Amino acid sequence: MNKLFSNFLKYAKLLIKPSAFILLYLALYFAAQIIITLIAAIPQLIIGLSENPDIIYDYGALEALVNNIIFEWAIPGMLISIFVCLPIYFLISKLRKQNFFEYCKFYKTGTVVVGLSLILGISMNVFVTLFLNYINNLIPLQEISKGYENLAELIMSGNTFLLFIIVGIMGPIIEEVIFRGLVYSELRKVLNVPAVIIIQALLFAVYHMNIIQGVNAFFIGVVLGIAVYKTGSIWPAIAIHISFNSINVLMSRAMPESFGTFLESYHLLMFAASILLTAAILMLIWFFPRRDPACIEENSR
Description:
By secondary structure, this protein is mainly alpha-helical. It has 11 helices and no strands.
C-alpha cells in the first residue's frame, strides 16, 4: 500500500509541469475564441438593442438575438483564433527551447499512409454516423442531443466555402496541433503510450463540451493517437481529421437525394463495410514501416 502511494506521489509530481502547460495550451485557444467572438458580437448586440430597446423585456427574444449573433461569429472567430494561437504556441516552444515542428511531430510520412488516412477518416465518419443512429433507435437520444443538433444546424447554416475551410481544414489542423501535438508530447514525457492515448482522447472529448460530440471525439481521439504513435508523425492524424470533418460539411450541403435513399436501404451493408474498412486500414497503419527513423519515439528517448 505504501509503495503504491509513493508511486502515485511520484507520478503526480512528474505530471505537475506537463499538466500546467496542457492547461495553458487549452486555455489560450478557449480564451482566444471567446474574446474574439465577444469583440465582434458586442457591437452588433448594441445595434440590435438600439433598434429595438423593448427586446430587453422579452427574455426569449433577447436570448434568441444573443445566440444568433454569437453563432454568426463563432466560425469566423474560430478562424481568427487559429491564426492568433499558432504563433503563440510557436513562441512558447521557442521560449522553452523546443523545436515546435519536431515537438508536434511534423515529420515526413509516406503518401500511401496519408492516402490511407484520408480513406480512414471517411470510413470512420460512416461508422460513427450509423452507430449513433442505431443507438438512437434503441435509446432515444433526442433530449441529450438536442443542444448538439441545434448547434450543428446553426454552424452548418453558414457560408459553405467558409465552413469547408474552417470546419473541414483549419479546425482539424489546430486541434491536431493542440491534442496530438502539444498535449500528446507533454504527456509522453512522463506516461506510457496507452495512458497517453487514453488521456489525450479524454481531454479531446471534454473539449467538445457535449455528450454526443464527446463520445465521438473520444473514439476518434483514440484512433488519432494510435496513428501518431505508429507513424511517428502528426500528418496522418491531420489527414484523418480533415477527411472526417470535410465529409460532414459536404454531406450537409451536397448530399444527393439518391444517396440518402441508398443509405436508408443498405445501411447495414454500409455499417459492416465501414467497420471492416476502418479495421483494415488501422491494421495497415499499425504495421506500415515508418519512413523516417528519426520519428521513432523509442529511439528518441
